[in-house]
Design goal:
The chain is an alpha+beta fold and 405 residues long. The protein has 3 domains: 12-95, no CATH class; 104-192, Phosphorylase Kinase, domain 1; 197-404, Aminoglycoside 3'-phosphotransferase, Chain: A, domain 2 (Alpha-Beta Complex). It has 11 helices and 15 strands. Strands 1, 2, 3, 4 and 5 form a 5-stranded mixed sheet that branches. Strands 6-7-8-10-9 form a 5-stranded antiparallel sheet, sandwiched between helices. A hairpin with a 4-residue loop joins strand 9 (179-182) and strand 10. It is globular, with a radius of gyration of 22 Å.
């Protein structure tokens, strides 16, 4: 779940602090120019170190950044190497932290890759080239493992997203990723998905995405106890209302007086508002949690809905707001009308349009809850990715409430 607001795109340079697998600090390398500005995308950093310095590195985590938010600017990473190499002295210190992920520690990525190799072996498969590190940050570590003409994709996530493998397995038969395997440590090994990421999807594809989402959600109505047993967070009425009230309290000092007053009026109305929402006839079910076109991968033959780590339990139309924010404005009304028809066909007599309108500020405030959850569960050096997001989503919620009266 990434918040990539419009911003002046600046080039990135990466400074690498090198450690060996036992955690010994070797030193640092001069900054490397990198052709991808987003801090969590590290394939280009690994490639730049190989091309300029002739060394293979594994990026472990972000140490510091010159800018106060992504993308671009000078970024310092901790990088693991197999053996010491000539490097500049580095005056910093590597301190332990209880919230640090295993994949952000020396030896952690190697352990994840060893697990993936064992899982592949169980399917009679063997890597045919060296794994390629794609991404690492506080929400995931992603590797591509070549196996002949295709690849397996290793994704490792923190504990608060670790239900992803379980829910994907429970969704077998729907258009979701296929897994070679998963474990309780947040690892999933994904069968390669053909096609392209659908950030720039045309209207017919966007309509298909809505149909796919509703099909999945309708199948999980009356099965929320199963979802809870998998560890999915609870965003049902009173539970989500309580979390929204808590995030407004915690972030109050980041808001203007007018925003605070607007949001506290909203919080006081939430129990009655949820009563109105559920009176529209749609029950709680599986919520994807980050459903936007970029989380679909597709071909002419079909779509696959990715990234289930953000999923939870709640009203199905909590997913609509974020999806509509990511599509061209001229498509919004057509997509909403299709969404309504899809749910009315499955729950006759329901009023999904009214439910979605009532839920719009709730869905926006839920995003503040989600980003605060990230901040509460990641180590300080990586909080820069999400530091301003909870207050930002609350401001957006206040603005929406004022516009809607």
């Amino acid at each position: 779940m990434e918040s990539q607001e419009e911003t002046t795109m600046q080039p990135r340079t990466a400074r690498l602090v090198l450690v060996t697998s036992d955690g010994t600090v070797v030193g640092s390398l001069p900054p490397l120019p990198v052709d991808v500005p987003w801090w969590q995308e590290v394939e280009s950093v690994v490639r730049a170190a190989r091309e300029r310095d002739g060394i293979d590195v594994t990026i472990l985590r972000l140490l510091e950044a010159a800018r106060n938010r992504a993308p671009g600017g000078e970024v310092t990473y901790l990088a693991e190497i197999a053996a010491p190499v000539p490097a500049e002295a580095w005056a910093g210190k590597i301190e332990p932290h209880p919230l640090r992920q295993a994949y952000a520690e020396p030896g952690g990525p190697a352990a994840d890759l060893d697990w993936a190799v064992r899982v592949l072996a169980g399917h009679g498969l063997t890597p045919t080239a060296k794994p390629i590190q794609i991404r690492t940050w506080n929400l995931s570590s992603v590797w591509r493992i070549p196996i002949g003409g295709q690849s397996a994709w290793l994704k490792v996530v923190p504990p608060f997203l670790a239900h992803e493998g379980c829910i994907i397995t429970a969704l077998v038969g729907f258009s979701v990723p296929r897994l070679y395997g998963y474990d309780a440590n947040g690892r999933v090994l994904i069968v390669e998905i053909p096609g392209d990421d659908m950030y720039e999807a045309a209207l017919p594809q966007l309509i298909g995405m809505v149909t796919l989402l509703v099909e999945i959600q309708a199948a999980w109505i009356d099965r929320v106890e199963e979802l809870g047993a998998m560890g999915l967070p609870d965003w049902r009425g009173l539970s989500l209302a309580s979390e929204i009230a808590e995030i407004v309290r915690r972030r109050s000092e980041d808001l203007s007086e007018d925003e605070r007053e607007t949001l506290w009026r909203f919080v006081r109305r939430l129990p009655a508002l949820f009563t109105e929402v559920y009176a529209c006839g749609l029950p709680d079910t599986l919520v994807h949690g980050d459903c936007h076109p970029g989380n679909f991968r597709g071909t002419e033959q079909g779509l696959t809905l990715l990234d289930w780590g953000d999923s939870g339990i709640g009203h199905p139309l909590l997913d609509q707001s974020a999806f509509l924010d990511a599509v061209p404005p001229e498509y919004v009304e057509t997509i909403k009308e299709h969404w309504n028809r899809e749910w009315q066909a499955r729950v006759p007599g329901s009023d999904p349009g009214r439910a979605a309108d009532l839920l719009a500020p709730i869905a926006m405030a839920r995003r503040a809850v989600i980003y605060q959850r990230f901040l509460d569960n990641i180590e300080p050096s990586e909080r820069i990715y999400h530091r301003d997001d909870p207050a930002g989503w609350l401001r957006d919620t206040a603005e929406l409430l004022k516009k809607s009266g």
